[in-house]
Specification:
- By secondary structure, this protein is α/β, with parallel strands linked by helices.
- A nine-stranded mixed beta sheet has the order 5-4-17-16-15-6-7-13-14, with helices on one face. It has a five-stranded parallel beta sheet with strand order 10-9-8-11-12, with helices on both faces. The protein has a three-stranded antiparallel beta sheet with strand order 1-2-3, covered by helices on one side.
- It is globular and about 65 Å long.
Length: 437
């Protein structure tokens, strides 16, 4: 047999119906080819394809102060730093649920504040939800019932590549599911903010698309004006936005009143920080105004790197969401004080976890840095302890929450596990802290 021939044993195996855990959308029809350590995406959005792809490269070893060591030695060094710290911050938290559970065990044992790298958008939405509540839809409800979708801000396809394909299919079989049960085949989608991208126009072909173009800093104002129009006020009398935008918002209010099931969606993470909570509030207020006469709901977008799972698990374990400090048998929630950037101002140790993507830890020089991180992570400064970890859904199985919080999705391992999971690395650290796995 010549060196160029391929045996049946060498041929890649095709794995279908892979669940994606990266963006929070929870697509469950991904397809990859796997040959040994190599993973080659065949059907996936661009972001998932980039994060799923793996080459035949041996994984790096754990390091302490830049020198290669064993996992046991790295875990012991990390535990030593944690024991000596007085104000630890746990950032990133890009892990599956079992990884979160073990990281929270470390926080309970050694004391630390916890926050996720994608929590800014989450807390902008929680601001409205905690004060007045809202009526939220699931992805399936939007797919099967929504006949008018209003999108605030930027085109969401940049962060959620298959969103429109999944929730606004035109024909049966698009997005891997059956045709919508109760919605018409052609629906209306309105952007308030940026225009539709070419990719979104292609995904929404067959639907009626409208754009109310306003600059990013005026999206919140447009949302407030739409809510005012729904409340019966004459928004044309207040020239806050250009006349055309105001007239379009008034027309949209009439369309919303006539719709059978309207949904308002936005990605708080891409809105100006000062406006994200206001947009969430306007969307929820619009739903409140429409609900007496028709059906309406909000669909906040998010869920990157299992932030929804990190949030849910914190609620189960501590009675508080993220941005909580834990230790000595107590917990205290202060979202402004324990946001990562603020918490680091008074910290003397940073533990950063990022298994889904090679995101480096935030800048921190006031004490040791422990990184349980993707093997491809590039560091501006070498961590005091680096433990390369596997990616859930690639190197090992796991569970993540979908963005709408109603479904916990199982991830499968695709290739031989040669890297510890976050849970395994954290368990090794716990054993050195005097608390076994």
């Amino acid at each position: 047999m010549s060196s160029g021939e391929t045996t049946e044993a060498d041929a890649p195996r095709i794995v279908r119906d892979v669940v994606c855990g990266f963006c929070g959308l929870g697509c469950d029809d991904i397809e990859v080819a796997v040959a040994g350590r190599v993973v080659m995406p065949r059907k996936a959005c661009a972001d998932a394809a980039r994060l799923l792809a793996r080459g035949d490269v041996p994984p790096p070893s754990p390091r302490v102060n830049g020198a290669p060591v064993s996992l046991a030695e790295a875990a012991a060094a990390a535990a030593g730093h944690l024991k000596a710290a007085r104000a630890s911050v746990f950032s990133g938290l890009g892990a599956d649920l079992e990884g979160h559970r073990r990281l929270y065990d470390i926080a309970m044992t050694a004391g630390a504040s916890i926050d996720h790298s994608a929590s800014a958008g989450l807390f902008a939405n929680l601001d409205r939800l905690a004060r007045r509540g809202w009526i939220a839809a699931t992805l399936a409800e939007v797919r099967n019932r929504c006949d008018l979708l209003v999108v605030f801000g930027d085109d969401p396809a940049a962060s959620f590549g298959r969103l429109f394909e999944r929730i606004m299919p035109v024909r049966a079989g698009e997005g891997g599911d059956a045709a919508p049960l109760f919605a018409p085949s052609a629906r209306r989608v309105v952007m308030i903010g940026a225009p539709f991208s070419d990719a979104s126009r292609k995904a929404l072909a067959g639907h009626e698309l409208s754009e109310i173009l306003v600059p990013p800093e005026q999206v919140a104002t447009a949302g407030a004006m739409l809510a005012s129009a729904l409340a019966g006020r004459d928004i044309g009398a207040v020239p806050v936005l250009p006349g055309l935008a105001g007239a379009s918002l008034a027309e949209l209010a009439d369309l919303l009143r006539a719709a059978r099931y309207s949904v308002f969606t936005w990605n708080a993470a891409t809105l100006p920080a000062s406006d994200a909570a206001a947009v969430a509030g306007s969307a929820a207020e619009a739903v409140d105004l429409l609900s007496p006469t028709t059906r309406a709901a909000v669909l906040p977008l998010g869920g990157r790197d299992n932030v929804t799972g990190a949030h849910q698990l914190a609620l189960w374990r501590f009675g508080y969401p993220l941005r909580t400090v834990i230790g000595a048998g107590t917990s205290r929630h202060a979202p402004d004080l324990y946001a990562t950037e603020t918490a680091l101002e008074d910290a003397d140790l940073l533990l950063h976890a990022s298994a889904f993507r090679p995101d480096p830890p935030p800048d921190f020089t006031a004490g040791p840095v422990i990184a349980l991180a993707h093997p491809d992570t590039s560091f501006a400064r070498e961590p005091d302890v680096f433990i390369p970890v596997g990616t859930p859904g690639v190197d090992h199985p796991g569970h993540v929450f979908r963005m709408d919080s109603v479904v916990c999705l199982p991830l499968q391992g695709l290739r031989p596990a040669e890297l510890p999971s976050v849970a395994e690395a954290a368990s090794a650290i716990l054993a050195n802290l005097g608390r076994g796995a």
